Amino acid sequence: MANGQWYPPEWPDRIRALADGTLVPAPPRRASTVMLLRDTARGPAVHLLRRRASMAFAGGAYAYPGGGVDPRDDDPGLRWAGPPRAWWAERLGTDEATAQAIVCAAVRETYEEAGVLLAGPAPDAVVSDTTGADWEADRAALAARGTSFAEFLDRRGLVLRSDLLGAWARWITPEFEPRRYDTWFFVAVLPSGQRTRNASTEADRTVWARPAEAAARYDRGELTMMPPTIATLRGLAGFATAADTLAASADQDLTPVLARARLEGDQVVLSWPGHEEFTKQVPAGGAYGGGGGTDQGLISGVSSGGAARGGTSGGEAAR
To answer: Burial of 151 by CB count in 10 Å (0-12 exposed, 13-18 middle, 19+ buried)?
Structure first.
């Protein structure tokens, strides 16, 4: 493996089935994922989760917190601050209810999987501490879908801070995949006083990594990532501060990225428009399987924690 790309071994057969019309694409489910940033002495770092090696799909691959939209994320009673829903609808290219659901999912999943809450008691305030048994009980209830995010905010007297998010990219799972997601990637800055932790049962480790260094480890085949993860990670490099990165989100292109596959003789050619580095030619009977290098001593300044939650990680969602 020249780098840390991960390709499921069943892809070639599914691509051929799609090409000959025997495979009907599954409709993609809406999803959100958040690239959480914090400043360090050497520039911004991003929060990443490592998927458990025992998982059937992309075991050992790094991704961001995230997951599918909950049916209740578009609750019209959701307490909201920041740009209005109409603004978000225009930015995301959707109707207002869908835009709210996508933004809400981003905030909710970040809390469920990383313990970070982008909400506050007022439109100009943000929660400074989400530790403690009462917060954990609320997080667990959200993760188990025992309560909606709107109900959680209302009971806590909080408002969702949509202004703390910046839309960055949109990737759609390839048509030949059995589980498909239409995933919006957001950036956000870690609120002052809050700390991340691994609250996802799909991850066995969390790290804070400077994007350029993590990308270099991927290039050497030492870290495993799926195309949406490494592509967005590369886009985060080069900014002086986390706030600068968030501000740059206003200029990011949200045109959906969807993998294309074609047959050339006995070979399957897989590509992502605009991202030539991921193009692969798979010979007849061949496949690119999963694999990943070690992450020992990944990057200085990493953090990790325990696990306690299920769901779909942002990296899996987009693939």
So the answer is: middle
Task: Show the tokens assigned to 160.
Answer: 């969702």
CA-CA distance, 139 to 196, in Å (whole number)? 13
Closest CA to 28 of 168, 167, 184, 183: 183
pTM of the model: 0.86
Those residues with Cβ within 8 angstroms of residue 275's Cβ, 6 or more apart along the chain or in another chain: 227, 231, 257
CA 247, CA 249: separation in Å to the nearest integer? 5
Whole-angstrom distance, CA of residue 184 vs CA of residue 124: 25
> Mutual orientation of helices 96-114 and 85-92 as an angle, nearest 10°?
90
Residue 185: how many CB atoms within 10 A of its CB? 29
| Distance in angstroms (rounded) separating the CA atoms of residues 226 and 318 | 9
Note whether 220 and 293 are within 8 A (CB). yes
Rounded Cα–Cα distance for residues 232 and 211 (Å)? 9
Name which of 125, 118, 71 is nearest 98 in CA terms.
71
- Joined tokens for residue 189: 């800055």
β-strand partners of 188: 36, 165
Per residue of the chain (319 residues), give pLDDT as tens: 456 666 667 777 877 787 778 888 889 999 999 999 999 999 999 999 987 765 555 678 899 999 999 999 999 999 999 999 999 999 999 999 999 999 999 999 999 999 999 999 999 999 999 999 999 999 999 999 999 999 999 999 999 999 999 999 999 988 888 888 999 999 999 999 999 987 766 778 889 999 999 999 999 988 889 899 999 999 999 999 999 999 999 999 999 999 888 778 777 788 888 999 888 887 655 444 333 333 333 332 222 333 333 344 444 454 4
Q: What SS3 state is found at 170?
A: strand
